[in-house]
């Protein structure tokens, strides 16, 4: 009988051990699911930021509907209706897009430019893009204790502050105060997303604003022009002349331009790298005619 009791006791211990293991497995699976969700959210945020840092490519543009001429109203409300993304089928269409222009003093232009260059999400834009953004921004004034951005609202405008001071809060908690020379609301020009914080004026403020549609038009036009230039570049490289158009287009999407001192290397280059971290460069001689792959260290 003692032996049977021992066996029963041992069996109960094994059953309890298996139950604990099952519980641990369930916990680990739940933790894994949560981490998968976190990775997906971070990937979505990364995609948003990339759409600002890297201009739109030809493939991204072809999937969108056509809306070419922008005529923003001089009198805008505090909350702008959501606009469809600006689109076009080719470079010639985008070149004929009419972008708005608002005159500014040299001081205002410099302030907007420096604010963009100081913003983590916009500082990598090309100077030509920044200049177009500066030209397209229109003036907006708010009185004291006005709500410029409300948390949870859908936004389509990004602002640069020229005068005054605002307070930024999230879920009722104060995050910071901002003064002149700061960009805010920039996520609205990436996606049709809700505002992540509330921005309320502490004084009378003077702002400059640009809507998402206008911003995306600038990005797409620059992206298409660059993509076409890179495609021509790749087609002129003997090594790549046998590659299909689709492959060349993918290469053009990941190209980054680098300017090198002629006194050092005698050429300007375009740098390519892939998700596998492999990279190489292509070079153009000083005459602007011969492309060749220079040796890499």
UniProtKB/TrEMBL annotation:
<protein>
    <recommendedName>
        <fullName>Cyclic nucleotide-binding domain-containing protein</fullName>
    </recommendedName>
</protein>
<keyword id="KW-0723">Serine/threonine-protein kinase</keyword>
<dbReference type="GO" id="GO:0004674">
    <property type="term" value="F:protein serine/threonine kinase activity"/>
</dbReference>
<dbReference type="GO" id="GO:0005524">
    <property type="term" value="F:ATP binding"/>
</dbReference>
<dbReference type="InterPro" id="IPR031831">
    <property type="entry name" value="PKcGMP_CC"/>
</dbReference>
<feature type="coiled-coil region">
    <location>
        <begin position="11"/>
        <end position="59"/>
    </location>
</feature>
<keyword id="KW-0067">ATP-binding</keyword>
<dbReference type="Pfam" id="PF00027">
    <property type="entry name" value="cNMP_binding"/>
</dbReference>
<dbReference type="Pfam" id="PF16808">
    <property type="entry name" value="PKcGMP_CC"/>
</dbReference>
<keyword id="KW-0175">Coiled coil</keyword>
<keyword id="KW-0808">Transferase</keyword>
<keyword id="KW-0547">Nucleotide-binding</keyword>
<dbReference type="InterPro" id="IPR000595">
    <property type="entry name" value="cNMP-bd_dom"/>
</dbReference>
<dbReference type="InterPro" id="IPR018488">
    <property type="entry name" value="cNMP-bd_CS"/>
</dbReference>
<dbReference type="InterPro" id="IPR018490">
    <property type="entry name" value="cNMP-bd_dom_sf"/>
</dbReference>
<keyword id="KW-0418">Kinase</keyword>
<dbReference type="InterPro" id="IPR014710">
    <property type="entry name" value="RmlC-like_jellyroll"/>
</dbReference>
<feature type="domain" description="Cyclic nucleotide-binding">
    <location>
        <begin position="121"/>
        <end position="236"/>
    </location>
</feature>
